[in-house]
Amino acid sequence: MRFASLGSGSRGNALVVEAGTTRLLVDCGFGLRAIDARLARLGLSAEDLTGILVTHEHSDHVSGAFGLAARNGLPVWMTHGTHAAMSQQQGAQPPPVEVIDSDEAFGAGDIEIAPFPVPHDAREPVQFVFGDGAVRLGLLTDTGCSTAHIERMLSGCHALVLECNHDAALLEAGDYPAALKRRIAGRFGHLDNAAAAALLAGLETKCLRHVIAAHLSERNNRPELARAALAGALNCEPDWIGVAGQDEGFAWRSMG
Fold first, then answer.
1. Parallel, antiparallel, or unpaired: how do β-strands 51-53 and 76-79 relate?
2. Residue 194 CA: distances (Å) to CA of 146, 151, 215, 242
3. Letter string b/e over residues 128-147, b meaning 16 or more CB atoms within 10 A of that residue's CB
4. pLDDT value of position 91
């Protein structure tokens, strides 16, 4: 199994997970031309995709999802709450989707997908653990805090893509309105570097081969701060921690 990011941050998010002949796009927060260009960087085209998974209805995760699905005849999986919220946003009935349970694993080709609920200011948000029978990839972004269930789901993974949205001091000192600062830092907002590190420190990590800091704020965080926080939790060198950039994402990471 391998995975790569097309971009991660407040201006758009998309991740590709591949095992065997199955390639899943997780979220699609970019327009069609941008998605095509970003897929091409990975040696892929939209025709190579098996389907699209949606974590929640915020535009930086879904703005291109229905357009890509309609153009390429791709199935889309999301929770009932996300489907209802996206239907309202679209102003018309969206293309047919496969509604998933936020606590029930399912399969897509060569990949098993285990959704899990997260505390975020969306209708019914989820994140995912992906497996191919040998290795597991855990994805966690867009959550305001950790939970015992989140930690159970992510323990023992071979790779993690983990939200480090902001540095608490930079957010507090920045020029965002007070209400927006409270939303970002709140229990239904986004993980800061220290919270992400604390979560990581509590996981079983003996199988861990990759850790990627993701969904970094361009105004309220710095890659070196996110790397340092996660490296401190693992007692490793900061350079071992990857970062998913807004424009470049990150290249393929192989899990063997």
1. parallel
2. 12, 16, 14, 17
3. bbbbbeebbbbbbbbbbbbe
4. 55
